[in-house]
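Changelog-adjacent note: as of this version, every example in the card shows the full chain rather than a window. The one below runs 197 residues end to end.
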Amino acid sequence: MTLIKACTKFLVRGYYRRVEARGLENLPAEGPVVLAPNHPNSLFDPLALGSVTERRIHFVAKHTLFTFPLKPILDWAGVIPVKRKQDGAEGVSRDQNLQAFEACFEILKRGGVIGIFPEGITHDAPRLAPVKTGPARIALGVDGVTVVPVALHFPRKAAFRSDAVVVFGDRIRAADWKAEANPREGVRRLTAEIEAR
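Full-length structure tokens:
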């Protein structure tokens, strides 16, 4: 177990009374994976998810988090910053985040795991916010990627020593959408499938 994984488990076990993992058999033991979890509890979401699997997860996070004191920790943990217009990043175009996408592609090509929150925001609503195309675009950028939707549930999320539940959903083979004649249509349809799952 890496030091990053050990620290994650220590933090989570110190805060939560119990973290229950269901459907872990849906997370491939090896090979490139994109995890697509909902985002109900801000910075606790990646910690809870990372604590229930032995696989290292490289999360994608908004660039505004990369300030002191979080930046050294996020860099050490291998978090990939992405700039978003909604965070006030001036002049952000679709092409300006190619560096973040390339970093994700390199990790996937090495058989790694990317964690990206498809809602793009954390919120308190009892349902999903509209799902963005980032996870589908990343998954379709490398051959052989498996997408795994993940449900995070915190019955009393503001309470110290409460419970957390992490549910890994059925696998989605990104290749099933890569054969689309129109790549944009493939991204749209895979995004819809992630949202449905």
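Structural remarks: Residues 49 and 166 are 7 Å apart (CA to CA).
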